[in-house]
Amino acid sequence: MERFTGNFTQQEPIPDAGIEAALAVLRHGRLHRYNTAAGEVAETALLEEEFAAFLGARYCLAVASGGYAMATALRAMQVGQGDKVLTNAFTLAPVPGAIASVGAQPVFIETTEDLTIDVAHLEEMALQTGAKVLMLSHMRGHLADMPALVALCDRLGLRIIEDCAHTMGAAWDGVPSGRFGAIACFSNQTYKHMNAGEGGFLTTDDPDLAARSVLLSGSYMLYARHRAAPPPEVFERIRLDIPNISGRMDNLRAAILRPQIALLPDRRQRWNALYQTMEAGLAHTPGLRLIPRPAQETYVASSFQFSLPGWGADRVRAFVARAAGRGVELKWFGAPDPVAFTSRYEHWHYAAPRPLPQTDRVLAGLIDMRLPLTFGLEDVAQIARIIRSEVISVGQADDLRVEAVPLAD
Q1: Read out DSSP for 353-403?
Q2: Whole-angstrom distance, CA of residue 83 vs CA of residue 220
Q3: What are the DSSP E strand ranges found in 151-268?
Q4: CA-to-CA distance for 355 and 378, rounded, in angstroms?
């Protein structure tokens, strides 16, 4: 019985150019983004300019994390105490956390079997709550039909903040993820598409939203040092009215990230090759449903999801344990309690969630796994064989008291 011995959390090394740039910053010691020598342009300012050009956005702000970017986007939109903000029920904890951090109330929207937001329920809840903002989470890299969603939001008077933590480099019909809403937020946490350990971006074409965001991030009166930002006169109107909620990115992280922008197309190709190998290995497995990818979607598949529709909790639990025993680390979104990074809407008690039967049904059998670029095609093919074997074995078992297969020493 074969076992996988790879590491699901081991990322690729930082590229040599990023290491050299980071060492240069460490050697001169000017880590703070506004601490520059005469004539020097900070690494952070250059990063913002380069990422804005990559995305095709007018403005970009580099910040401490993707969660901070989302909270800043909400504040820039003047969302505050008691306001309702619509968001996907299928997302991760930083999304409702950002909403709660500004005193607003998350309102969760049902999830489809294809892991995108349910537009019918979105319309219903927008009309019921009077919400003016949708925090749209492209959870695990699955894009909804974006032109249709934008048209609906325009009709409902909803402004969109895109959470693109899992879709940096993705697109719908050639339009990059992050170019559909008023603001887009990205993450540079270790498991995302560019790795700085932590970090994030906020992008927008709106000069007022950009200026508010820069001031919120803690620019003091040094906003003129931002290159991917509006001109000083936009700041002059509001500079004394915006609180400083410091969350700047530093030059060390920026130096690590700058060379990674050019690597995104290659990374997308390599991730998608792993994903497609996994898809092929799991195709036509009895009891397992793959998540379809629309033809209009250009995805960046740094993770893989499949569902076990109709399986009871005991059977899913047995399958996850058996896979773990063979070295395959899977996350189950139907688990009764949060585990590490994996939780679901009913666990976030501060948000006072209401039951969502469709989402509950989807998440009950939803399995998730990372696809780090340290894996090769042979690794993924082996993982697929193990998953397929255990789905068939556990799916057909009469006795669900299935113990995990012990790992070899």
Answers
A1: PPP-HHHHHHHHTEEEEE--TT--HHHHHHHHHHHHHHHHHHHH-S---PP
A2: 28
A3: 159-163, 171-172, 175-176, 183-187, 200-204
A4: 42
* Model confidence pTM above 0.70: yes
Retrieve residue 159's tokens: 């402004």
Buried b (16+ CB within 10 A) or exposed e, 214-229: bbbbbbeeebeebbbb
CATH classification of 16-261 is 3.40.640.10, yes or no? yes
The answer on pLDDT for 402 being more than 90 is no
Whether the pLDDT of residue 406 is over 50: the answer is no
Token output for 45: 């300012």
Fold annotation for 264-396: Aspartate Aminotransferase, domain 1 (3.90.1150)
- Cα dihedral sign for 145, 147, 152, 156? positive
- Helix or strand (DSSP H, E) at 28: helix 16-28
Continuous segment of H or E residues that includes residue 133: strand 133-137
Could you read off the pLDDT of 22-58 as tens digits, one per residue?
Answer: 999 999 999 999 999 999 999 999 999 999 999 999 9
3-state secondary structure of 307: strand
CB 221 within 8 A of CB 212: no
Nearest in space to 170 (alpha carbons), one of 202, 205, 206, 139: 139
Residues 6+ apart with CB under 8 A from 363: 90, 111, 333, 334, 344
Work out the burial of residue 408: count CB atoms within 10 Å of its CB; fewer than 13 is exposed, 13-18 middle, 19 or more buried: exposed
Domain boundaries of the chain, sorted by first residue: 16-261, 264-396
Single out the residue of 357, 356, 368 nearest to residue 331, CA to CA: 368
Contacts of 335 (CB under 8 A, 6+ apart): 317, 342
